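note to self: the first set is below, dont mix up w the second
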Amino acid sequence: MVTQTTPPPSPKAVKHKKSQSYLRPQQRTRKHQTDLKITQPSATYSTIATQTDDDITKCTCARTVTTTTYTNSAQNSDDDEVSSHADSDEDYQPSDDDQSSDADGDDMNDEHKNYRLNAKATPEEQKQFLVSESALAELLSVCRYCSSEAVPVIKVSKGTLIETNSICVNGHLSIWKSQSSHNSLPWSNLMTATAIMLSGCNATSVLRMFDHLNVQMFSMRTYNRLQSLYVSPAATMAWDSEQSSLLQQLRGSDVILGGDARCDSPGYSAKYGSYTLMDLQTKKILDFQLIQSNEVKGSTHMELEGLKRALGFLKDYVNIKEVVTDRHSSIKKYMRISEGDKKHLFDVWHVAKGVSKKLEAAAKRVEAKTSVHGSNPLLTISVGALSELHNIMEFRNFCGKLKLSPFD
């Protein structure tokens, strides 16, 4: 029995039945034909000085030598352009933006350059630095008595404070603390809580940031305790001292007060509101009052209550001649009836804000009419200019009655 065999297909074209595609062998191109000239790595010596040893030890470091590749002249123009840019790196001149950014970084580094650490600095004067765990372990792994190897172990961890014990092979014990404490309270815990409150940041977000950064920090419960026991009372004492000193300087003098309210949220759902009175001549705050909405009829009445409390407190120290406020309806009535001996003026900024809102509303009405009946550009510009001129003249007359400069 004779079987008939078919010769194998040529390697130039192989056809696959399922994919119906031709598989061709890889072709060598001139782009991959390179001549490698490899140089042998040379050994260099560098000196390393330890913290405790006096002798200088030499160690051999192998310098990495890059291999140079000589490309064939048959490469395309893009490769030639890239190689020309690489060759011209020696003649590179940085731009002005690069130089300015480098200069800013150098200025920031110069602040701590050649800075001598002061072991006797007070807690509020000390600089704070972030130190990694590996760097701290390297620092504490050498015995301070015999310079032998030691094993540091964290024994106490309290917020930002850690206390380590390092025992060397000779039995020497070294105790190290990351910061000083007032009795049992670490200073950095108190300073961090104070910085969060005085910066106006949200404590939850700041503590979450430290958690993402893997920085050891106290909890939210500890922050609330530090705020209520130390930070808030200290801020209150500082304000009382400053206010008493300022009122003693202005005692019995005539003052012109400017006041305005600020709530924790806009609209009619505010829970807290503060009213501040400032001396417009010295540009200093004389008093501010904090009001809660459940103390009055509603959130809209907090501004008037704050003004009443602030005026009642300042009457015993200064002689109030004029009061400048916004055009709040209840404040206007109260000043007209209860404080008739004082001149009540409206703030120019609030008046201008009200006029601008009316101008915008009038402009929208004019645009709506012209869009319905057809627009005439010249007529629209004329009507808008006349309306604005009329409002400006009314605004000048209004300010003239109040003896104010409309565009100060």
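second set (the one i keep forgetting abt)
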Amino acid sequence: MVSLSFDSQFARRDPRYESSSGEFNETKFSENYAFLKDMRKQEKEELLKQLKQTKDEERKEQINYLINRLTNQEKADEQKEKQKQKVREIREEKGKKVFVNKSHLKKLELVEKFKELKKSSKLDKYMQRKRKKNISKDRKKFQIKRK
């Protein structure tokens, strides 16, 4: 009886953690896989056509789930691009060696959101909902402390 050891010949490795695979370059990755955005758009259009044609409720739910997933991916990509653009703008203003924190980016996003809400005159409604939400959170905290 001969025992063969495949461990030494075919060692599995994860390229994310191997130094021999090189460094991850996000810009190169996005350039190399830019065709995926077009594919997603086509897939979304096909799914919308299928949604109109199907009569089965379960299949409609599946298609809606897939469409929502694709739109969320698009929104996430757009948001990432916006953040990169903001970082570029900040670095141009202050100098190239400035590190921008996530908290700083969140503050900038909030300021932008408030400006948009003010333009569309929905700021009052938004602030009212925020207050209600915070009040309910506070009530829950106080109820937990009392018990």
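remember for set 2: Helices lie at 26-32, 35-53, 57-94, 102-119, 123-146.
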